[in-house]
Sequence to fold (312 residues):
Amino acid sequence: MTDKRIDKPFSFSPTRRSLLAGTFGLSAAALLPKGAHSEVDQPPVLPLEREDYAKARERFHTHLLRKMPAPEKSEPLGTPPGARRVTYPGGPNGSIELVAWLSEYTPSKTLKPAVLFLHGGNATGDGHWALMKPFWQAGFVVLLPSFRGENGQQGNYSGFYDETSDALSAAAYLENLPGIDKDRFFLAGHSNGGTLSLLAAMTRKFRAAVPISAGVNSWRYFNRYTDELCFDETDPQEFIMRSSVCFGHSLKCPTLMLRGTQERPFDADHELLMSRATSVGTKIDHQLLPGTHNGVVPHAVDESIKFFNAFT
Fold:
């Protein structure tokens, strides 16, 4: 998640927004004049959920008030050099087919380590795939999935929740390919993909995870990107289920959080996530690398490889 300053020329009061949304069953953002933005009220203390995130996902269903594609203009997906175009069953219960790019490899009796990499932004592009080259050069099979509503594909954008389901489906697809070593199955992601990688690593086990420039607090994100609000923001649980900081104890693998020195630094929200994870014995660390939000990615991929090799 990136920092982005937005003007807020008009907003209802929190009470007024709640009344309007409750009366009409609409998103507060949908009730505003075109070009205006609502404000999302953040709790003074980010809640700690006692339930495991995977269990919470079993009973929670997001309530989308707007049906929309991913909020980024994009072209239909092709096949970039060095990739094999595949499809995996994303969506609820595998109900939609989504495109992913897989590195070329030959299955053999010697099982190969694999990396699921979740891209940044809200669209998939060839530039994302070009960043994956060091992974396959280092001997990893790598899969870069696209998500619902991206690049003209099926499905509705949900702001990280159903996209986490897609990421988990992509993980199941990759680890069950022939020749993949399930004991050396890793996860990484950048920006929005870093956010998703934390939520995915709180749902199921990976050998290790590296979220890069990840967001942990969905209240903060949707206050910056109010035009992406598509769920019922009058329900606090919608934000909780998109905020890894609320489920730090659920992190299920060793984790290294990376960030660029020229972007917003690790803050109190990140520190809170790490303290909640370490309180139950999870190994988690963070590191700053030279670079901007996007410029840090090549260095972060190299650091990810070093981190993953420690578990191979």
